[in-house]
Amino acid sequence: MEILKVHNLCKTYTQGEIKVEALKNVSFSLEKGEFAAVVGESGSGKSTLLNCIGALDVPTSGQILLDGQNLFSMKEEERTIFRRRNIGFVFQTFQLVSELNVEQNLIFPLLLDYRKPDPEAVEELLKLLGLSDRRRHLPGQLSGGQQQRVAIGRALITRPKLILADEPTGNLDSKNSQDVIDLLTEASRRYQQTILMITHNRNLTACADRVFRVSDGILKDLGGTVNETLS
Ligand SMILES: Nc1ncnc2c1ncn2[C@@H]1O[C@H](COP(=O)(O)OP(=O)(O)OP(=O)(O)O)[C@@H](O)[C@H]1O
Ligand SMILES: [Mg+2]
Fold it and tell me: For ligand 1, atom 7, which residue shows the shortest CA distance?
């Protein structure tokens, strides 16, 4: 079942006289439960792609359909609510609320949407994250890897159709990076969660079902294995 469809996506940034074509006719789709990685040089357009798909940025042209719904034909308010319910974000810098403890950070997206957390689901998630004994800790009292695991839990709690992760392991050492990737892999298997993740670390693409490479705004599908094709 197709969850995400990106069709002829273009994004051009204009700064005075200078035009940057950050995305050039990008088209691809993702199935339910697929774990896809995006690689590419710095400045190639990876974050622009994720930001457009997550409706954090507005494409210049083209379409993005999530579960058949065209993101940019919605009114802004409708799009904000749709995003909150259907897309989870994980960033390099974790972006947890520093005054809230682990459990409160986890359930925050539900509260934003006036929904009541299911205690059993919260327990299950804490266990999956390996943070059952850290539930009352504040983000400042956690390691980087633990903080990113909370951020992944926060993205998972609403069971969104799609999780977008922009270099989720960028601030982590190799052990914590692998834990984060294992967690995302487990989420895609256990919850049939569709994930699109940018990474600079080619070792971390090994768990992905598919790998895309962005090069100067053009996206290419590299298929399932990339180690020979990545330089
Ligand atoms: N808000 C903006 N205004 C103008 N140009 C921008 C803007 N955001 C990005 N760009 C340009 O678009 C291009 C793609 O940027 P993007 O952030 O998508 O790259 P990236 O592949 O994520 O790079 P990195 O690996 O360094 O994070 C770059 O040339 C960048 O300078
Ligand atoms: Mg980037």
Answer: 13
The topology under which CATH files domain 33-44+81-230 is Rossmann fold (3.40.50)
For residue 227, name the pLDDT band (cuts at 50, 70, 90): low
Question: Residue 201 — very low, low, confident or very high, per pLDDT cuts 50/70/90?
Answer: confident
Q: What is the dihedral of CA 10, 15, 18, 22, to 10 degrees?
A: -30
Pick the ligand that lies closest to the CA of residue 57: 1
Between the CA of 230 and the centroid of ligand 1 the distance, in Å, is 21
What pLDDT score does 224 carry?
Answer: 79
For residue 40, give the ligand nearest its CA.
1
> From atom 22 of ligand 1, which residue's Cα is the shortest distance away?
47
- The 10s digit of each residue's pLDDT in 68-106 is 999 999 999 999 999 999 999 999 999 999 999 999 999
Q: How far is CA 127 from CA 90, 101, 150, in A?
A: 19, 16, 11
Domain-by-domain residue ranges, the chain? 33-44+81-230
- The predicted model scores a pTM of 0.94
Residue carrying the six token digits 């053009």? 218
From 15, 17, 20, 50, the mutation candidate for ligand 1 (largest count of ligand atoms within 8 A of CB) is 20
